[in-house]
């Protein structure tokens, strides 16, 4: 001991500075005897000298005269004032001393056991004492008079021979709430100091220790709130070592005190007006500012030199340092393993200054530090939480699921209230007060969640033998993670709780929400059961905790928001007495489904109600009625019950808009009244690029796993021939997939009057992709769709442009062509744009039929597909009887013209990489023209054989004969006299066609003033005769039945002129004439070919002998 006169150091220092060491022992014994001696019978009064009274300073009077001033600076001994004060003990005193300036205090610390066993113990007594001191709780910090030695202790931290040591914080007398020592200590979420450090190595011998080697272990323990006592009962607080300091040592102490002012300022207590001045040694340099202490109720948060908090905060502290070791006794091993960052405390192997200089602060460490500040500023509310919770039901009787659900409840409520209070803009002082009050309540609610999981749940699990349920573990990890993020955000934006303790009078400290008592069958109804209680007890199960009260998105679920609502359960006939259930309404959607769900959940678990789209699992959206005037949702339940969900008006509007938007977005992938689904698939990726950069209809970046649907628009009409169906274009809809949180949908029409512009691409992973342009008038842009494989892309593309061949369809003709054009009529030039295309082939697609040639009239699946190098033309031939008319060119034997009435089902597709910029506009004009007026399509084939094959597939009539007649004459008898007049045309195109038993003769004239075309049937009853005239050979049809060639009624009408130039095979004109018809050819071969096609034998022809064989 340093003050022991028998030690070497004491004898050495006494020789240098001790002037009164000789009479010290005798005088100390005499002082003790005088103090303990009973009162004398005679009154002896010792008056002080008059000159000493003038030096008393009553303004600095203290409760304890011998207590050292905290801010007192040591002065050199040359100053008269200090010399006079220090020389009081050296003045001669009388033999009989009074009890002036003597104070007796009993030490509050436990007796120190320096050995056990005595001589019989095999371990040396010195070693036992060192071991006891190492295992005991670290003593409290020094009085302020030791502040000069603070820098020396910091040096001792970094000394390799000294073990790391951090004393616990100073303790104050509780001023507000008392903290029960039986409750488990709150653990900080960041690594804290070990309450049981490794025993330090034995200190060096006392003879080798100087004033700079003083160990903290040599300082006696003084509990907080008690005066500083001397080392012995008969020794003054002012030690003799202080009186023996030299001038150099005093100046060194002064410098060290000045250097440590910043550190001491963080723990100085200057608010009290009493003479007691305390200070606390913090751990700011070890774990950063604002970190919680090891004890369950830490000391007031330090206000260091770099802390933004202006005033230190007063908190309740526990009175025993041994409580720092009570943590592990209340937490179960299974619970401690769940959050190692909250339970494990790393050992100290380096000095705090070195650690802070070498280890950078990570984002996780910053979040942990923010959470530490939050918990340290709300920890004083934990005991009121416990009191309120115990008043409802014992905490140890609570189930872990109930505690986890309550923690989720308060976290959601606190975070929601905090967000609302931050968003609100207070204008008046009253509004500011309300916002501040709601923010204080939000802090308290968040503290409830932390308290329930950090203290209550470990305490409850400590009484159970079963491990913590995995679901409860997931809840704990989720709450801890969310609290870290929220605290970090509050710290970053300056919304952490204030340093000063929040007033508990204005805070709702209740933990358990009150709910009405209901029976088990009613609980089943509130869990979504549709049947009776007995039938559903085995099938209805509660929802997972994080699904009923979701904190955010999970791996298999998205959360779009939570709202606090009031749920009322009403029974038919007792609507005026509803049962009230405060609940949270969560908007969620699972990643494997596309529809939204509304989930209602109460704190006690009695309400776990989902509104979804599956009728087999519970109530659906069809059972919900939106009451805008009441801002409520009404849900019909079985057995005469009903549920009313009351919301705030703004929340009701938001819920309605989200559900309405979701319903409309999902409806884009459903066929409408006049639509048929032709394609449905999931895209590997989809990118939507609008021309307007401000548009936010769909994300501009590629989105994976989108759903695409192609719908054919159908128009149905009722006619005398029956119901008819017409193609009116396609609608393309794309919806983000279930794995994408933000729901987006686009829908565009591809109508027949607009050409389809496409392009074949490859994606980032070489997947086949298709580019499509869209133009709806208001919006235009491009879409890039990546498919799973090449056949899927080709399938979608062929459906969109109308070239797909379905299972019930067949290609009846596919022949090459050399030309295709669309003209206003047969005499006009073709529309601009078609002549530049390199034509490839044409094919006829029609319904697959058992007959050789299917129906071509009223055929809804008959279409002409023309392929060229940079696109296709799909001409749907859905015509009524008599609407399809054809004409053969007299000069070009390989040309065929088709006349069509106005149509709105033609599709032109163009590859945008192979066409000019003007081509889409030209095609658009052509499509607009064909939809408004009759038009003529002219096709040029490579041979007559290809022409006949195409004609047969289009009209259903097989070509039996196709040739050019040198003369075609019609004999007409005059009305009054029996004189015949002939109408004769030269160079006519003649064709004989047959469909089943019907044989027709098609005649097309050129420069014939009586008409341009005619057709008449041939029957087996007709009389045919072979004739020869002027080197021309031919046949004569006696008394043939035929209509005259038609002349246009109005020559100015283009439609009438074209109507006379084309003939209809399916609906020929009724014969009105019966005269002779003569057909002459230049060669006998052509005549013989015609004779082979006639339905009856020909007189005078050698081929008539073989007829019928």
UniProtKB/TrEMBL annotation:
Residues 807-955 form the DUF7613 domain. Residues 173-185, 264-274, 291-307 have a biased composition (Low complexity). Residues 1-40, 57-89, 150-210, 261-362 are annotated as: Disordered. Residues 515-669 form the DUF7611 domain. Coiled coil: none annotated. Residues 80-89, 317-339 have a biased composition (Polar residues). This is Uncharacterized protein. InterPro entries: DUF7611, DUF7612, DUF7613, DUF7614. Residues 961-1095 form the DUF7614 domain. Residues 17-30, 275-284 have a biased composition (Basic and acidic residues). Residues 671-803 form the DUF7612 domain. It comes from Cytospora paraplurivora. Pfam families: DUF7611, DUF7612, DUF7613, DUF7614. Residues 186-205 have a biased composition (Pro residues).
């Amino acid at each position: 001991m340093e003050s022991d006169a028998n030690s070497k150091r004491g004898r050495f220092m006494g020789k240098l500075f001790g002037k009164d060491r000789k009479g010290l022992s005798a005088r100390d014994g005499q002082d003790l005897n005088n103090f303990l001696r009973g009162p004398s019978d005679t009154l002896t009064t010792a008056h002080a000298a008059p000159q000493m009274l003038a030096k008393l300073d009553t303004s600095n009077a203290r409760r304890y005269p011998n207590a050292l001033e905290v801010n007192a600076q040591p002065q050199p001994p040359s100053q008269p004032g200090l010399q006079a004060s220090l020389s009081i003990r050296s003045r001669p005193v009388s033999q009989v001393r009074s009890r002036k300036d003597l104070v007796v205090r009993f030490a509050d610390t436990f007796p120190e056991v320096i050995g056990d066993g005595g001589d019989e113990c095999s371990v040396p007594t010195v070693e036992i004492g060192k071991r006891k001191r190492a295992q005991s709780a670290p003593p409290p910090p020094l009085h302020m008079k030791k502040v000069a030695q603070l820098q020396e202790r910091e040096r001792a931290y970094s000394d390799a021979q000294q073990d790391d040591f951090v004393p616990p914080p100073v303790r104050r007398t509780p001023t507000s709430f008392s903290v029960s020592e039986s409750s488990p200590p709150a653990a900080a979420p960041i690594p804290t100091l070990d309450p049981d450090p490794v025993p330090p190595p034995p200190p060096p011998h006392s003879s080798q220790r100087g004033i700079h080697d003083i160990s903290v272990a040599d300082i006696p323990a003084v509990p907080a709130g008690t005066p500083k006592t001397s080392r012995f009962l008969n020794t003054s607080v002012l030690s003799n070592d202080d009186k023996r300091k030299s001038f150099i040592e005093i100046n060194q102490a002064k410098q060290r005190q000045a250097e440590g002012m910043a550190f001491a300022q963080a723990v100085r207590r200057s608010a009290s007006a009493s003479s007691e001045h305390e200070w606390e040694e913090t751990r700011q340099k070890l774990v950063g500012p604002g970190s919680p202490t090891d004890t369950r109720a830490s000391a007031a948060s330090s206000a260091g030199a770099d802390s933004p908090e202006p005033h230190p905060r007063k908190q309740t502290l526990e009175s025993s340092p041994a409580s720092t070791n009570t943590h592990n006794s209340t937490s179960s091993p299974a619970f401690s393993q769940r959050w190692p960052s909250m339970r494990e405390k790393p050992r100290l192997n380096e000095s705090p200054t070195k650690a802070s200089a070498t280890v950078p602060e990570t984002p996780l460490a910053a979040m942990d530090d923010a959470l530490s500040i939050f918990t340290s500023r709300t920890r004083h509310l934990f005991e009121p939480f416990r009191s309120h919770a115990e008043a409802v039901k014992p905490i140890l009787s609570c189930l872990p699921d109930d505690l986890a659900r309550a923690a989720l409840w308060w976290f959601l409520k606190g975070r929601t209230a905090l967000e609302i209070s931050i968003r609100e803009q207070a204008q008046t002082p009253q509004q500011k007060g309300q916002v501040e009050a709601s923010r204080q309540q939000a802090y308290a609610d968040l503290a409830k969640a932390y308290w329930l999981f950090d203290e209550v749940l470990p305490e409850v699990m400590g009484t159970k033998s079963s491990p913590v349920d995995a679901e409860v573990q997931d809840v704990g990890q989720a709450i801890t993670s969310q609290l870290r993020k929220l605290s970090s955000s509050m710290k970053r934006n300056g919304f952490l709780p204030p340093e000063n303790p929040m007033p508990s009078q204005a805070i709702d400290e209740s933990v358990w929400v009150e709910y009405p008592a209901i029976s088990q069958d009613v609980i089943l109804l509130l869990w979504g059961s549709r049947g009776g209680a007995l039938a559903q007890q085995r099938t209805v199960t509660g929802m997972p905790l994080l699904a009923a009260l979701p904190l955010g998105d999970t791996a298999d679920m998205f959360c779009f928001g939570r709202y606090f609502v009031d749920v009322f359960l009403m029974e038919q006939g007792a609507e005026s007495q509803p049962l009230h259930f405060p609940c949270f309404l969560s908007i969620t959607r699972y990643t494997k489904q596309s529809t939204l769900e509304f989930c209602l959940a109460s704190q006690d678990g009695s309400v776990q109600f989902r509104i979804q789209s599956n009728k087999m699992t519970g109530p659906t959206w069809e059972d919900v009625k939106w009451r805008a005037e009441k801002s409520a949702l009404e849900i019909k339940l079985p057995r005469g019950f009903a549920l009313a969900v009351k919301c705030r008006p703004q929340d009701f509007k938001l819920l309605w808009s989200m559900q309405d938007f979701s319903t409309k977005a999902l409806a884009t992938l459903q066929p409408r009244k006049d639509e048929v689904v032709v394609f449905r698939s999931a895209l590997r990726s989809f990118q939507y690029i609008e021309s307007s950069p401000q548009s936010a209809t769909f994300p501009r970046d590629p989105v994976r796993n989108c759903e695409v649907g192609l719908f054919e628009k159908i128009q149905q009409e009722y006619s005398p021939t029956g119901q008819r169906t017409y193609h009116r274009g396609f609608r393309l809809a794309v919806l983000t997939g279930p794995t994408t949180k933000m729901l987006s949908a686009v829908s565009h029409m591809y109508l027949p009057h607009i050409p389809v512009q496409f392009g074949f691409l490859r994606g980032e992973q070489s997947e086949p992709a298709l580019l499509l342009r869209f133009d709806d008038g208001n919006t235009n842009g491009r879409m890039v769709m990546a498919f799973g494989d090449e056949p899927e892309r080709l399938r979608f593309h062929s459906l969109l442009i109308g070239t797909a061949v379905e299972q019930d369809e067949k290609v009846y003709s596919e022949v090459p062509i050399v030309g295709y054009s669309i003209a206003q009529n047969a005499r006009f030039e073709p529309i601009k744009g078609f002549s530049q295309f390199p034509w490839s082939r044409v094919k006829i697609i029609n319904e697959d039929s058992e007959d050789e040639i299917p129906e071509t009239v009223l055929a809804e699946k008959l279409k002409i597909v023309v392929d060229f190098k940079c696109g296709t033309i799909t001409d749907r031939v859905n015509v009524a009887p008599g609407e399809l008319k054809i004409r053969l060119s007299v000069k070009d034997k390989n040309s065929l013209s088709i006349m069509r009435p106005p149509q709105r089902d033609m599709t032109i597709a163009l590859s945008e990489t192979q066409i000019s910029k003007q081509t889409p506009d030209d095609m658009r004009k052509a499509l607009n023209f064909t939809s408004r007026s009759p038009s003529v399509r002219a096709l040029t084939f490579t041979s007559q054989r290809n022409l006949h094959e195409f004609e047969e597939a289009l009209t259903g009539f097989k070509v039996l004969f196709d040739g050019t007649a040198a003369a075609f004459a019609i004999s007409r008898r005059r009305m009054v006299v029996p004189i015949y007049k002939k109408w004769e045309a030269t160079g006519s195109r003649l064709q004989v066609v047959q469909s089943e038993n019907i044989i027709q003769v098609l005649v097309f004239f050129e420069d014939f003033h009586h008409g341009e075309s005619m057709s008449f049937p041939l029957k087996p009853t007709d009389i045919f005769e072979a004739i020869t005239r002027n080197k021309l050979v031919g046949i004569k049809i006696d008394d043939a039945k035929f209509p005259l060639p038609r002349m246009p009624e109005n020559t100015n009408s283009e439609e009438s002129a074209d109507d006379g130039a084309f003939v209809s095979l399916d609906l020929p004109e009724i014969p009105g004439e019966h005269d002779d018809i003569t057909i002459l050819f230049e060669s006998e071969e052509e005549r013989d070919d015609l004779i082979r096609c006639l339905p009856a034998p020909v007189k005078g022809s050698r081929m008539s002998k073989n007829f019928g064989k």
